[in-house]
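P.,

For your records, the input lines for the assembly:
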Amino acid sequence: MLFINRQKSNWFSSGGEIYVAVFIMLLANIQCKKFVQLDPPSTQIVTASVFSNNDAATAAVTSIYTQMQSESWNMSQNCGLLSDELVSSSTNNGVQLYYLNNLFPSMAPLPGPWQSAYNYIYQCNAAMEGLRAYGTSNSIIPQRLIAEAKFVRAFWYFYLVNCYGDVPLATTTNYAVNALLRRSSKPEVYRQIILDLKDAQQGLSDDYVDASDTTITQDRIRPTSAAATALLARVYLYTDSFANAELEASKVITNSRYKLVPNPDSVFLMNSQEAIWQLGIPDPSNQNTMDAFNFVLTAAPGGGDANTRTVTINPVLLNSFESGDKRLTSWIGKIHVSSPDTTYYFPYKYKNITSNITEFTTVLRLGEQYLILAEAKVRQNKELDSAKIVLNAIRERAGLPEYSGTPDQQSLLAAILHERQTELFVEWGHRWFDLIRTGNIDPVMNVVAPRKGSVWNTVYALYPIPQNEITQDPNLLQNPGYN
Amino acid sequence: MKYSFHERAAYCQLRKTLLIMRLTTILLLACILHAGARGTAQTVTLSVNNMPLEQVCKRIEHQTGYYFVYAQDLNKTSRNVSVNVSNASVNDALREVFSGQPFTYQIIDKVIVVNTLNKTEDVQAAKPPERMIRVEGVVLNGNGQPVSEASVTIKTTGKGTFTNEKGEFVLPSVPAGSPLVVTHIGYASHTVTPKEGVYLELKLDLAMSILDAQVVKGYYNTSNRLNTGDAYTVKGDDIARQPVSDPILALVGRVPGLSISQTSGVPGAYSTIQLRGENTIPLNKPTTANDPLYIVDGVPFGSETLTSPYMSGGVLGLPSAVNNAPRQGMSPFISLNPLDIESITVLKDADATAIYGSRGANGVIVITTKKGKVGQNKVDININTGFGKVTRKMHLMHTPEYLEMRREAMKNDGLLSRLIPQNTSIYPDLLLWDTTRYTDWQETLINNNAPFANAQINLSGGSNNMQFLIGGGYNRQGTLFPGNYVDQRVSLHVSISQTSLNQRLHIQLSLNYSNDNSNMSGDNIAKYITLPPNAPTLFDTKGNLNWQPYGGTATWQNPLAYTYSRAKAITNYSGGGVNLSYDLLTGLHIQANLGYSRDQMDQTNIIPSDYYPPPNNFPSNRSSGFANKNLTTWIIEPQISYNRTLGKGRFECLLGSTFQENHSYAFGISGSGYANNSLLTNINAANYKNLLGNTEVLYRHNAIYGRISYDWEQKYIVNITARRDGSSRFGPGKQFGNFGAIGAAWIFSEESFIRNNLHFLSFGKLRASYGVTGNDGIGDYQFLSTYTPLSSSYQGVAGLIPTLIPNPDFRWERVRKLEGAIELGFIQDKILFTLSYYRNRTDNELLSYALPSITGFSSVTANLPALIQNTGMEIALHTKNISTKNLTWISDFTLSVPRNKLVKYPGIENSPYAYTYVVGQPLFIKLIYHYTGVDPATGNYIFATKSGTGLPSYPEDIYPSKSLTQAYYGAINNSITYKGFQLNIMLQIVRQNGLNYLAAFQTPGVSRQNQPEEATNRWQKPGDIAAFQLYRNNSNKPYSIYTSSDGAISDASFARIKNVELSYQLREAYVKKAHLQNVRIYFQCQNLFTFTKYKGLDPETQGLSLPPVRMMTIGAQLTF
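Structure tokens returned:
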């Protein structure tokens, strides 16, 4: 509706209105769709490109191991404090509340591995979905990576189900579904774990491979078919499926790749012959394992608000070793402080606190498989002699004489459980889970808790579900005793 | 005659142009009405008797091929025609036909336009013809510069014209003796009665009244009087009165509807800013999601902190990617020098903000910097200096009470037997430290002198065609903490305005640069004020940090450890805007805003090994971090606008487009394993380097917008804005949205029945506005499924982790704003009163929808099906209480009463917010337990439970708390001038509920944390009635429930003497002798005194944050 006079201005000589009209039309039409359509950010990679490329897909799976670096220390310290393995000298919530069996849903940091476990599980689900949708079809690698993701998913569901009891089972990345999940019963969760592990047994390589997924390497830092078997053996043991546990554990023990390392000092070294699956140290790193970094004391343990290097070995554990046990001297460190005269004992399976890398975080190792095999046999009350031999293999490595107690089922079982206490202490929560699954938790904790200055209640055997989860997912119910 | 022939021609030409426009419209209609009329003859032969006019016209059309254009009702008012002509010319024939008819006609080319003679013309025609005179003149401002587009109105007829770009106007026929009224936004109106043949030269004075002051309303300006929307302006003088380094802090309490809460008294701390409440659910959103849009000289200014997300800002905290209260990191506004600011205008309602579209969904804050003025060059120097002290302290326990608490706690838990030497490291306060020591840690740690200094020098001047201003500033503010920690800013501001000799081309350039250097370090020292009162000395006998080691391990965290670390945060800000405008014709402009800004922060954090307590103080623990973050924005806005008179009013329209791009980049790297402390500043010397993060984000915004406004006699005003916005934050197909607003105002005091009857009412306006706008306040790229590289590699391959849960389907959030207001002026505007009511409703709210961790992430970006409403009442009252030659007293009062409500949320019970929000309640509630007291039997805190016994359970026993936000807030500002003295006092009032300080404390006795003195009133034995539960050594459930119950919520209202300025202007006689133009000396104080019942440090910062600083300065201002 604008009219410009043709003879009007010096600048605006004849034909001027055309310019203005063009200007207006430009204004009206430069609603560029292109302008607001951006390329993906330069610092990220689109999911489809990640999984259509084998190298990138491998990076998406192995980055989970990078993220898992501190899980061994977390699980070992927290379960060690909850049970009778460790003592806290710190008043930091993250340490002391575990020690006093005083966990509550809204504590910070969150109780247990819930958040990180489900994040790893998401990454596994995303990898499976991505590889199925975009994976290269003419290569075996996508199938291997899917198997690896299933293994890791099973691994974390195992820890979830043992820490929290019934847990929601997320097997897709669909947040609309997952956000409203109910807790699946323990048997349902175990059913999924076993399914995943059987698939992983089939799909994973027998050999340890490097980042190419095909080239064989000495580093035992990627899961193999044997790792799936070893975890399956443990799962069968925990679910009272002893014949299967015996079968799977035997497969690992008879695999010539794995041998008990004679010297306890060498068990946790990188590429130890006993290791079935280790977590490599990501590069760059100026330290060895988080376990060594956080457990090894060079001075009195920190009090106050400290949250690392604040734990010492509980006298209950210290006194449970038979005399002459090499593990007592090899796997438990001590430091003497002169004023006042005190000796502190600390977990010392991982020893190296320098920056020169010699140790990897061991997740699955042969020693446990021996104890699973022995226990599975005893539980079935068959081949008790053979079970004794298996048990003695562990005792021998510890420099202990052969089992000399009565060879009946009860006594042998007690001996095996005691052996688990001294062999697997402060290692991924074995002691705590053993106490729960064998029903020994109440008698043991009723003695230990008062010494720690707290009162035991059976409901404390399970972690509380983080409060935020209950708030966000209206279908989730809290564990008894934590409301 | 002063004006040129050319200009006269221009005037006539313009009139002709306008006429043509009107006729063209009619022509178009004519074609529709009268298609098909044909004829060829140029003469008319008619012989009719008493024939209706319409038929006569049709005959003429047939004979001549001319078209008639007339209204449908021609027959109703026309008389029948009797005429007899033969071969007459068209002109002659028409004269015959129309003689005696109540119509005029006009022949244009081959069209005959028939118009009704209007009544006024009838009346005038009836009257003896008035003598018409021709008036020409020019309108100039105080500097002698032409004022273009000033409206010149003939008072008696209401008709008028506008001045051209040279300020000139011509009115060809003005009734003799009728006065002319000249008005222009920003100037006081001027009335003059012209004399025939005298060229008028009119000078307009700048508006002194608030009503006529200019309001910068985005891409166009208006005045308070004529504004259809809600805009509130704070002048530079009021900002300069306050000794603050962050200009945002100078707005506290001054703008109705704008709530600013300081989060800490540390220089550079980020304030929480809300304009008219929370439009959005504040959880899990980008920190800036509810921020207003900030515009500095036409260029958007990023309101997000530049503190790197990878490295903490030390005492200012680590910024979080999502909403966190209080905000962390350094305030970005620290880059702006308050003394460079001419005015800050806050645009609030739909009408005022609509031109900014989605970017202005939460309101707009327009910051305009100072410009040069015509006149002799002058130098203005302003220097002040002073120091700050803490505003408030808490009453904490002394050593005996503290030790008693600790021992009693152990006794209550049956742990006294643990007080043996082996446990020294656990209980050093009882077993190792000197139990006779007492230190007031508040005094030691947070009440040192915080120095403040500010210096500003401005050089300005200009001729009629060019004005300039060059300003340089220096600001320095220290902290209340021990150590030499300062935040220093050097700033430069340049403004140049130029107008071409033909007055058509205008260039306005402004450049702002600042360099802010903060060495604020390490830790939030305020948290150490609860150290045990018997904690060890800070330094040992050798002058080193005292760690009071035991067995080689420190027994406490020495609060001064931070003094061993070194931090630096250097912010460089440069922003420039150019506005080019060209006047094509009077009223028609094309213009372009071009802007660019870049804000960058470089941070260094150096931690030598002795920063750590033993035994962690080994050499390899030394480390350093380096990070930077920058934000670059460019904007291009071509516009065309057209203003003209239309009828008795003024018509304005604007069409424009915006292209904006924001680019942000953040990078961080840390190093460790340095061979020695002196190499820490060089990352190359680190044995281990760790990439902390690296992100690059692009955001683009595109819009086209138009505005039409019409102002009828400065009485009825309507303003319509429409806009189409596009944002890169949405997925394909969802980028664009259409929005718009309408505003209308009725200045009823201009109605004659009001003017004649209500003499005390000098101004009265009703206005209303409604509009819909979108909001894209969410993170970038949220619709894309991507992986982000990890800095560390596994098996030699760098890892990839999923960035987020993608959602390709989210779309524009919608905000609907409604406002109504009444504005009144009494007794020649001595009292000005505004009352406004608003209702903003947000739906399709975009947010990071909180998810349980089961989903793998804690949130996903989505639209929420909720409806959130913010309503409120705002009052502004300005009174001139006394106004004499020597004494003036002016008061300003503002009050805001905001209300917030979650109106609708279908399915909330199955949503993650089921136990966070309640439909019908504000978003600021918390669902908490109800605290009922201390159980006299057990000494534990007890709470209301449905079951009636035991501890409360979740969620059965939770209930919605009071709203944890302001119920109302406001301020009273008094300004008294007596001769050369001026006193300004501002009192800020806030009525609110907040978390009380107890929420920041642990169970008394549980750890080595000192407690409020009140906690001595604790339960000790059965039957005791006490305010505090029994002391406990172990963390315990009743206390943790207490901190999330209503026991931790209390009144946090306060009244604060926010600002005092006393100044004295030297008498002119003395000043002149010293060859100066002006000398002023002053005393300024910020946060002078706080009245509150809040226990704890400060009701504004709450918890254990450092309270706002009481800053006192003296200064002088010289002009020569």
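Two observations worth noting. The longest strand of chain B covers residues 688-712. The CA atoms of residues 348 and 684 of chain B lie 51 Å apart.

Regards
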